[in-house]
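ok, trying the design again with the full structure, not the truncated one.
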């Protein structure tokens, strides 16, 4: 009897604990929902004119980043397609990077912009929230992996220039691009749609509140995804740039030493009077040496420019994405203990997005070939737009537009045909009147 009573009491206690925990979870969800609703109302309805101005400036800056990423990366793709000189292996990585950055602007930035416009309200439903989070992680990771591949390609081009055509073949290029485009799915679509990325409490809260699309992750997913998306590619890029810088500096010192050795040899021959019989040979050797030095120096200049461009790209990458991934890992590890204001979330997201708009500007400013190709492409677009506007202004209703010379020729020919027709009719009428009068006279005579 006592055992039965104890068992019953223990069961009642377990039931009470389960009920209490469910009520606590419900109350916590309600409080979180109330907090989210109050936060949405706070950001959606600006209280003062200063808040309205800040809201408009924020949206304008976001829209500028979206348009810059779209148009700049589209310009990169069109320029490489139009100019045969840019169709080298490295620029295929650049074109693929531009495509990834364009998709970041279309899917990640635009959905985030819609959330900012609505004041934090997600209007596309539960399923599209998972789609947006997956595409955001996927294309951002693909963009970062492209930068890693470009650094590896430049490393082999500068450190091993003779073996570069054998190392970077079309088959290896296709394999690297396939890895870059397929591997981000392992940290985006698979864990998000399988619901491995977050906690059960957050998934339950999302199912009850479809108008809120927050990306709250667990600790395991935070470490794994950040390592694949940022930390490992970032370390590879820094190591490759360091090796490129060391090799470029070594080659420059070797070129300087060869020039000094040639100058000392020439001076030694002049001092000893040996140049009398070796004048022609020395001139030919000097000419060959000058050509070789010019070729080496031009090659060194190109490689140093490429290394400098890569260094700027790596610096911009770290500047844009390091704050986001530091915030991402720290807030995921400390969970509720860290204060996480919405303004900081928006700032770190859009600073990372800005990297997609910054890459075309870096290529346009620091790469002469891209700069020339961009100018020609923009000039062609402006000429086409000018011709199109001019044609529509001449005759907005007629889809077929003719030049002034052709129109005048048609008008003159029309007037000439009308004049000839009138002359022929007059001649016919005169002939007819004469015939009628002749008939009249003959009838009278008869």
């Amino acid at each position: 009897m006592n055992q039965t009573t104890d068992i019953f009491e223990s069961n009642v206690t377990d039931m009470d604990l389960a009920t209490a925990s469910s009520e606590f979870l419900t109350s916590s969800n309600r409080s979180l929902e109330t907090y989210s609703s109050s936060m949405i109302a706070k950001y959606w309805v600006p209280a003062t004119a200063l808040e309205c101005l800040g809201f408009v400036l924020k949206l304008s800056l976001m829209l500028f980043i979206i348009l810059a990423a779209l148009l700049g990366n589209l310009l990169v793709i069109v320029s490489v397609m139009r100019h045969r000189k840019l169709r080298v292996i490295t620029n295929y990585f650049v074109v693929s990077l531009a495509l990834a950055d364009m998709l970041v602007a279309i899917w990640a930035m635009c959905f985030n912009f819609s959330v900012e416009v609505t004041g934090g309200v997600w209007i596309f439903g539960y399923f599209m929230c998972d789609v947006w989070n997956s595409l955001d992680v996927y294309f951002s990771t693909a963009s970062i992996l492209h930068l890693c591949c470009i650094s590896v390609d430049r490393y082999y081009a500068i450190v091993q220039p003779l073996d570069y055509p054998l190392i970077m073949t079309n088959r290896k290029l296709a394999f690297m691009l396939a890895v870059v485009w397929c591997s981000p799915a392992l940290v985006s679509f698979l864990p998000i749609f399988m619901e491995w990325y977050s906690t059960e409490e957050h998934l339950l809260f999302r199912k009850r509140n479809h108008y809120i699309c927050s990306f709250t992750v667990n600790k395991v997913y935070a470490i794994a995804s950040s390592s694949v998306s940022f930390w490992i590619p970032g370390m590879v890029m820094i190591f490759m740039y360091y090796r490129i810088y060391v090799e470029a500096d070594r080659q420059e010192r070797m070129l300087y030493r060869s020039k000094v050795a040639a100058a000392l040899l020439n001076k030694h021959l002049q001092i000893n009077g040996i140049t009398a019989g070796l004048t022609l040979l020395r001139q030919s050797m000097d000419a060959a040496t000058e050509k070789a030095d010019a070729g080496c120096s031009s090659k060194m200049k190109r490689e140093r420019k490429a290394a400098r461009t890569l260094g700027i790209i790596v610096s911009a990458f770290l500047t844009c994405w390091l704050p986001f991934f530091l915030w991402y890992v720290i807030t995921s590890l400390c969970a509720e203990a860290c204060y996480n204001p919405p303004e900081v979330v928006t700032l770190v997201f859009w600073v990372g997005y800005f990297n997609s708009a910054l890459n075309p500007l870096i290529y346009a400013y620091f790469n002469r070939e891209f700069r020339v190709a961009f100018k020609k492409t923009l000039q062609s677009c402006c000429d086409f737009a000018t011709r199109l506007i001019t044609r529509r202004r001449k005759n907005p209703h007629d889809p077929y537009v003719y030049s002034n010379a052709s129109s005048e020729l048609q008008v003159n020919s029309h007037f000439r045909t009308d004049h000839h027709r009138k002359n022929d009719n007059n001649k016919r009428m005169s002939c007819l009147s004469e015939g009628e009068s002749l008939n009249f006279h003959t009838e009278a005579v008869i």
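Keeping the full-length input from now on. The chain has one domain: 47-388.
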